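Explain this record to help learners:
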Amino acid sequence: MNEKNETTIFPREEKTEVLFQKILNDPWACEQLQETFCNHLFCDDELNEALVPGQFAQALFNSYCNRDLSAFLMIICQNTIFDLLRNSFLIPYRFDADGKTNPIIMTDARGQLLPQYQNEIRPKEYHHFRSVWSTLDNKENIYLAQAYRYSHFYTPGTMNVQQKILEKNNGILLIRELPDTIRQKDTEAEAYSAVWDIMIQIEKELPMAYVFYGQDSLVKENERYDEIGIFLPSSLFLKNLERHVAKAEEIIYAK
């Protein structure tokens, strides 16, 4: 086949070897990935509702011809390969992926609820955030926020690729600058491998926390930095929230 004619639904990630090897070297990570894949496999009814037979066959053959694993995985489990890794909590979510705001920050730098979100949060939940926020030594870039996990799917009929929200939560978001060594990585996969040790420690200490990553997305004094965001869903971390925030900071800065 002439490789020039190959097209993939997502740009193929380059230099993934180090990232993939880190996952392969960790039995816990491999178990997470297998469980996520199995949990998202279609049953027959779900598959029939997702695509009509002609569309299914066309998508299947396109993924084969283009050697596009993500296109094939979207047919059978509505996740790309990197969706599976994200939803296994093995790589970060990108800030504002696919041009959609995620996470949504609902407070300002003083911990005050922004007016447009007055009806989006329960008073009890906001007051709890304020009580925690007021006790923190480092209040910079800590917000009440809403975040969601997502995958991708083909829309029936048009076969367009759309983002699918899997789970949405309110919680506390910590945004922190990352070391300069991570800024030197060329590709997204290389950057993920550089932050992998931090992320996996976070997931083992704070299971089901969402980790976000942005390249050159944090601006301080007209300089751009890579940043990491740790989102602690209220549904999981509301109890002992102060301790969870402290643990997240401890992991980021290796205290």
The radius of gyration is 20 Å. The chain has a mean pLDDT of 83. The CA atoms of residues 53 and 71 lie 16 Å apart.
